[in-house]
Amino acid sequence: MNMRRIQFVTGVTFLVAATLAGGGERVPLKKGDRIVFLGDSITAGGVGAKGYVTLIKSRLKEKHGDLDISIVGAGISGNKVPDLQKRLQKDVLDKKPTIVVIYIGINDVWHGEKNPKNGTSKEKFEEGLKDIIARIDKAGARVILCTPSVIGEKTDGSNGLDAKLDEYSDISRKVAKDTKSQLCDLRKAFVDHLKKNNADNKASGILTSDRVHLNPAGNAFVADVMMKSLDN
CA angle 55-59-61, nearest 5°? Predict the structure, then answer.
């Protein structure tokens, strides 16, 4: 095996390991699975023609058409963890999911940039995630918990909310471990990708259109990372 091949295999192995870390095990998809994608405007955009939810739906249909897997998008712009708690029953549990992918945290951090009261405290963020997961577990579905991705794509640590976003990502990792939920570590995947692909230290334009919301490349990237959590 040549050096280029070794580097490729190592990179894929590392990304999969990072994606699956947290205590939960990846479970093979089964016939009749219903996957709900729960989140904010990033997830709302994910159901668009080139969105990550749509891309995942297409890939699963192509690879597992015989399993008749259904996909539900449950993203609402501006949502934070407390918002997900309020609408969990109606928008998720009533849909009878077997898998729930939770992609949240950006607004919990971002909205508190100028006024902490508009964000979500670290305590409420952790408590809220645990409440959401407990209720999903009780309903018999499994959880894939994603860390929040980016608020700015600069790679030198100069995005204004990098430190706080890392703190909240650590909380999500802890919650995944404590609840034995599967973790999809989007934060780490984004940071690693940008370090390799943002040589000009741009604030946006690599995976996002505005430092937060995904551009077509970002949607494709998220679909790739989430597929590693959803499917063997």
Answer: 115
Q: What is the pLDDT of residues 175-221, one digit of tens each?
A: 999 999 999 999 999 999 999 999 999 999 999 999 999 999 999 99
Q: Residue 210 is encoded by which pair of tokens?
A: 């505005």
**Host domain of residue 116:** 3-230
The rounded distance, in Å, linking the Cα atoms of 147 and 216 is 20
Q: Provide the domain count of the chain.
A: 1
pTM, 2 dp = 0.89
CATH number of the domain at 220, please: 3.40.50.1110
User: Nearest Cα to 85, choosing from 48, 51, 127?
Assistant: 127
Q: CB of 108 within 8 A of CB of 117?
A: no
Distance of CA 57 to the CA centre of its chain: 16
